[in-house]
């Protein structure tokens, strides 16, 4: 009779193996030799600690992108949108040729950071903020003087008409402000990279507990970025490992067994469909989250999802809102979906709201996230009322745990992050 190992190997041989599946087999080999008294999580920690991050499959070449520090915000937005990525390392154009990789890269610019800038510049005139009237006028008239930093409230955002972003994105200020000009504060992430010899466990912990969305992997010999690992890429790797013993021992558990969702109904940050879409982005910034549900008026059912990546449609296609007096969350969803349909583009928003029930297994959830290429799934009850939300980071955080004192002096040399950091 064939052993379980032989059956598994035969099954893997019958189908083409992706790089991620081969990596899963490497974890499987390590899993089989772990001490039997270890818990599944302890076994996985040991397996991932034994694999260098250099083993992770390389990202598509068109996603390993650098943005020059003297690029304008308009150029940065176009680059990120064109390559369908959420962030990119910023290379210092003034660095000497013999600079080390730590001196060559000065940060990670994210859509999230540009959102912060946009929100700060987008406050229309308000009696409580008279200086913002001058700021808005400067944007609309293409002046190059800096805007005042204001606090965007829902009452101010409500007056933002559909042509506001047309005026903003055509302004000289938006076109001339350079990426390095918005450095500092909470507007972007520090350049924290892994070396190819660092472990998988380090990578997974940075992507989950330490809330990084992507991590550059640096080749010290070349002094250049060798790979960029994202939360989405890790979820894809897990999806490709379905059927392997180590994955099934964990993946067949349902959400409640793994303590998910971490964010339950009473803590979900949400926006109602008739609220301004800028309020949605303001809430994401304030609560340091990547997306939120759009809720039907007078109920607790979600009619859509808005994520930070969707801000690009305010910046790259502002003409689609031209006829709206106010860009509400509902109008935003409608306009973007129509735009994507007209351009026959595939984008996560086109999938609509993705939901699951509490009895869903983590395996089912991973396969759904990977298939739909989304970053969050909403947990609903039998009547489709919201009960929670689960993100990619939540899933990775349930795969491994951080041993006491694990990072040691790993973060030495990285500037302390301010309280409002989005990393």
UniProtKB/TrEMBL annotation:
CDD domains: CBS_pair_SF. The keyword Repeat applies. It holds the Pfam family CBS. SMART domains: CBS (SM00116). InterPro entries: AMPK_gamma/SDS23_families (IPR050511), CBS_dom (IPR000644), CBS_dom_sf (IPR046342). Keywords: CBS domain, Repeat. Residues 60-126, 263-324, 349-407 form the CBS domain. SUPFAM superfamilies: CBS-domain pair. The keyword Repeat applies. Residues 1-11 have a biased composition (Basic and acidic residues). PANTHER family: AMP-ACTIVATED PROTEIN KINASE, GAMMA REGULATORY SUBUNIT, CBS DOMAIN-CONTAINING PROTEIN. This is SNF1-related protein kinase regulatory subunit gamma-1. It comes from Quillaja saponaria (Soap bark tree). The lineage of its organism: Eukaryota, Viridiplantae, Streptophyta, Embryophyta, Tracheophyta.
């Amino acid at each position: 009779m064939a052993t379980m190992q032989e059956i598994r190997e035969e099954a893997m041989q019958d189908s083409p193996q992706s790089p991620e599946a081969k990596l899963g087999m490497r974890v499987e080999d390590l899993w089989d030799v772990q001490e039997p008294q270890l818990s599944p999580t302890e076994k996985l920690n040991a397996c991932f600690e034994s694999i260098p991050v250099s083993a992770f499959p390389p990202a598509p070449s068109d996603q390993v992108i650098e943005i020059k520090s003297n690029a304008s915000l308009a150029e940065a937005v176009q680059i990120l949108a064109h390559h369908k990525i959420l962030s990119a390392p910023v290379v210092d154009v003034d660095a000497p040729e013999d600079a080390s990789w730590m001196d060559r890269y000065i940060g990670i610019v994210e859509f999230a950071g540009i959102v912060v800038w946009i929100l700060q510049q987008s406050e229309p005139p308000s009696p409580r903020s008279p200086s913002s009237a001058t700021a808005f006028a400067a944007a609309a008239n293409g002046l190059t003087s800096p805007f005042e930093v204001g606090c965007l409230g829902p009452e101010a955002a409500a007056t933002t008409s559909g042509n506001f972003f047309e005026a903003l994105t055509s302004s000289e200020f938006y076109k001339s402000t350079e990426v390095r000009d918005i450095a500092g504060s909470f507007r972007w992430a520090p350049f924290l990279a892994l070396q190819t010899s660092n472990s998988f466990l380090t990578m997974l912990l940075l992507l989950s507990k330490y809330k990084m969305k992507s991590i550059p992997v640096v080749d010290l010999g070349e002094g250049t970025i060798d790979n960029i690992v994202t939360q989405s890429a890790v979820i894809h790797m897990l999806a490709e490992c379905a059927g392997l013993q180590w994955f099934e021992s964990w993946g067949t558990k349902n959400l409640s067994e793994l303590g998910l969702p971490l964010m339950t109904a009473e803590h979900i940050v949400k926006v109602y469909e008739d609220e301004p879409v800028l309020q949605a982005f303001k809430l994401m910034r304030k609560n340091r989250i990547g997306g939120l549900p759009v809720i039907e008026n007078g109920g607790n059912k979600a009619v859509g999802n808005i994520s930070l990546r969707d801000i690009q449609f305010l910046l790259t296609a502002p003409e689609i809102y031209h006829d709206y007096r106010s860009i509400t969350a509902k109008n935003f969803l409608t306009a973007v979906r129509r735009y994507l349909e007209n351009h026959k583009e595939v984008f996560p928003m086109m999938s609509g709201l993705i939901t699951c029930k509490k009895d869903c297994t983590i395996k089912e959830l991973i396969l759904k996230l990977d298939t739909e290429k989304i970053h969050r799934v909403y947990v609903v009850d039998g009547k489709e009322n919201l009960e929670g939300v689960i993100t990619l980071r939540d899933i990775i955080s349930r795969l491994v745990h951080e041993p006491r004192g694990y990072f040691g002096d790993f973060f030495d040399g990285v500037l302390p992050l301010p309280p409002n950091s989005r990393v």
